[in-house]
Amino acid sequence: MRQTYADQVFINCPFDEQYRPLFQALVFVVHACGMTARTALEADNGAEVRIEKIVRIIRECCHSIHDISRVELDADSGLPRMNMAFELGLFLGAQRFGERRQKKKTCIIFDQERYRYQKYLSDIAGQDIRAHNGSVVELIRAVRNALATTLPSDVLLHSGATMAERYARFQRELPVLCSMLGMDPSDLGYRDLASLVSQWLEVNSGPRLQAA
Length: 212
Prior knowledge:
By secondary structure, this protein is an alpha/beta fold.
């Protein structure tokens, strides 16, 4: 099925090992909602400047998920990581100042704790900031509920709890799937992960339920 602008979801989050369980859950729930997850990891083109790649992906996505929770100081530099807040600003700027299609953009913003952002990014006060508390289940439920509001009224989705159960099953089966394909589940590239998620969802029934 050909994906449209309305089906593209930009994921702006940490990509380190510590965040991996939440990142994989984000990719899964986006695809389980019948959409396509997009990240800066999807293309490794040394000829494309990183900021240009991020701007291009933001331009192509109607929806986005931003996790701004990683604000701890780096152990080596003693400085905070600002990339996630910067990319959130780019997305909000595109929504505010872009042409008609860009003004349709929606976003979901997460922090570790609900009101913690007020201490380091108070300019986004008034936005609906969600807390995932480091929980895969809470993250999946919140993303599912938010994306469901962007779909046509005759499209129904499995509940957040059901999607979380399906994700847990996918994780249990992932090592076997990777073994069959000669892959290492602890070292999956983004495209490999997205492909495995999509194929698993297709084999294990579609995510959308058509209302009567």
